[in-house]
Amino acid sequence: MSVVNNAASFWQGRERYTVFDTHYGSGARAAALIEAWRADPARPARLHIVALADGLLPGFHRIPQQQAGVTLDLLAAPLDSALSQLACRIDFAHLEGIQGQRTGFARGLARLAATDARLACDGLDGAQRDALAAQGFVFDDANAAAHFASRKPRLPLPPLPARQAIVIGAGLAGCAAAERLCARGWQVTLVERHAGVAREASGNLAGIFMPLLSKDDNIPTRLTRAAYLYALRYWDTLGGIGREIEGAACGVMQLARDAEHAAASRAIAASGQYPQEFAEWLEAPQAQQQLGLPAPDGAWLFRQGGWARPGSVCEAMLTACGTQLTTHFGVGSVSLARDGDAWQVRAEDGATLARAATVVLAGGAGSVQLAQAARLPLAALRGQVTHLDAATLPELPFVLCREAYLTPAAGGIACAGATYDLDADPQLSIASQAENIERLRGLISSPAAGADAPLDGRVGFRSVAPDRLPLVGTLPDFDAAGSTERLRDVPRHAGLHGLLGYASRGLIWAPLCAELLAARLENEPLPLESALVDALDPARFVLRARRTGRGPALNQTD
Questions:
Q1: DSSP of 117-140, one letter per residue?
Q2: By the 8 A CB rule, do 350 and 337 touch?
Q3: Same domain for 183 and 265?
Q4: Distances from the Cα of 172 to the Cα of 232, 393, 463, angstroms
Q5: Is residue 555 situated within a structural domain?
Q6: Which residues on adjacent β-strands are paired with residue 147?
Q7: Which helix (H) or strand (E) segment is 416 a member of?
Q8: Beta partners for 299?
């Protein structure tokens, strides 16, 4: 019996079914499995395929599917590492192409195996079969298949919540949360204090999308890479950049800051870890030839990068929600109150706007005004963008950036910026404009650029955590934390979740963070390695406060 038929014979009548494959190959087996799922009237509501794949950048890659109900995750990692970082219950596993590997994978597979998990085995050696048997897998007479029969108790999965949620905030974070939940059949009520979408930090004319590089491939680099690659695929499902979404995938050129930065960049490029379509290092003559402007220390070229108007991304995401979305715009400030097993969102006059057991705070810097989020150490950093007449500037083939950025012309306007200020003034500042223009002049090597430009642009306030990483997950109850030492033991506000702290990367962080939260609510395989999931957990600040002996200061930045 083929692997596809074997897996399909066990999924009938299930709510969800997860298949793990150690060899993705050309993808033919996964495609056949999805086709079998489509054709089966007794199929599970959701099919998840998790497979090891070669030729991808390191990490987990969630590949959006046109077919609702199907999830595909490709893992570019060694088998042992992939299993240790995977968060899911495996119902069926196909083991192929692992001859000669050490037997430690057996323990990892057993940890993830569902009570009645099945294996299809191709080419296992005796030591590998023995290791699997020691973990509770029972083989058939031909040693070609096995089932999990361990009597060790399985920790129960959390109960699935009612598929109704309130999302507070209609910027990138909130609109992505609404879309990702609606895609799973949730009814979502979106509450926004302004009269429309993207009126605060998400309201700029242009946001840049590009990856982050580092020599040590640290957590921010890994997270940004995963989010960037997911966003590129996700936006295509919404109609695409430059089509349904206003913007251009024109590429981003990041100039080296100085000779030292250039040397570090050359070392990264020499490691060979990045293909050219993802990140290409250009020496000064090459960079200058492509840009048409001086690039004295060389530059990175991110060919898949570009810019998009965040508001148009928000609009596309809400359109995709269809009739499962209810919106309340222009409600002003709101408060949250517990009402039995649910939360009430109340207007300033005390009237109840919405009620649900699941609430997602996605209001950026303003979210700390809610009592339940007030102790999160989020800062509101002011950013002023300057709008310039594009006819007064060089015509750019790419988005150009270094300490500052400049976008190609759109509607006759080029955007330059943005400042990072502790100032709380929402009005345009002459000093901030002067700072933007000074950086612009260094960026394009033009001492006269922006001369006599009128004061024009936009001010927004970024929500920033001390470690510059987002907050994704159930919010901690600081008052009940006690002597907690582990993330999993931190008391939480039941049903209250955050998508916060997106800093300057909301455009690319929003889709993956929303996908992560939605997957967690649904007990699905998570789209990120466990180490990255933990790094984003809002409860990390409870543990850090204990380790440093300090309570989390309100709105601290360091």
A1: EEEEEES--HHHHHHHHHTTEEE-
A2: no
A3: no
A4: 15, 30, 12
A5: no
A6: 118, 138
A7: strand 413-417
A8: 255, 282
Closest CA to 251 of 262, 260, 242: 242
Task: Give 523's contacts (C-beta < 8 A, 6+ positions apart).
Answer: 16, 89, 157, 158, 160
Residue 521, both tokens: 């609510």
The pLDDT value recorded for residue 48 is 97
Q: Out of 71-80, 136-145, 414-423, 539-548, which region has the weakest mean confidence (pLDDT)?
A: 539-548
d(CA 367, CA 335): 10
Token pair 């400049």 in the structure block, residue: 406
Instruction: Assign 556 to helix, strand or coil.
Output: coil
Number of domains forming the structure of the chain:
4
R_g of the chain computed on alpha carbons: 25
Segment 467-479 mean pLDDT: 96
The residue segments making up the domain with residue 420 are: 379-461
DSSP run (H or E) holding 493: strand 492-500
Task: Give yes or no: residues 267 and 386 share one domain.
Answer: no
Q: What is the CATH number of the domain that holds 86?
A: 3.40.50.150
The CATH number covering residue 315 comes to: 3.50.50.60
What is the C-alpha separation between 2 and 22, in angstroms, rounded?
A: 16
Domain boundary among 461, 480, 515: 461
Ramachandran category for residue 7: left, alpha or beta (phi over 0 → left; psi -120 to 50 → alpha): alpha
Taking residues 117-121, what's their average pLDDT?
A: 95
Among left, alpha and beta (phi > 0; psi -120 to 50; other), residue 362 is: alpha
Verify that 393 and 487 share a domain, yes or no: no
What is the identity of the amino acid at 127?
A: A
The tokens for 71 are 């999830």
Residue 214 in domain? no
The amino acid sitting at 39 is A
Please name every residue paired with 497 in a beta bridge, in sequence order, or none if there are none: 360, 474
The answer to whether position 225 is within a domain reads no
Please name which of 98, 90, 147, 141 lies closest in space to residue 122, comparing C-alpha atoms: 98
Out of 461, 488, 522, a domain closes at 461
Rounded to whole angstroms, how far apart are CA atoms 504 and 258? 23
Residue 8, pLDDT score: 85
- First-to-last alpha carbon distance for the chain, in angstroms, is 59
Q: Does a cis peptide bond (omega within 30 degrees of 0) precede residue 503?
A: no
Which of 140, 141, 134 has its CA nearest to residue 118?
140
pTM > 0.70: yes or no: yes
| Cβ neighbours around 297 below 10 Å, total | 19
393 and 515 co-located in one domain: no
- Per-residue pLDDT band at 152 (split at 50, 70, 90): confident
One domain, residues 362 and 509: yes
At residue 484, the pLDDT reads: 81
**Residue type (1 letter), 448:** A
Beta-carbon contacts of 476 under 8 Å, excluding residues fewer than 6 positions away, are 490, 491, 492, 493, 538, 539, 541, 542
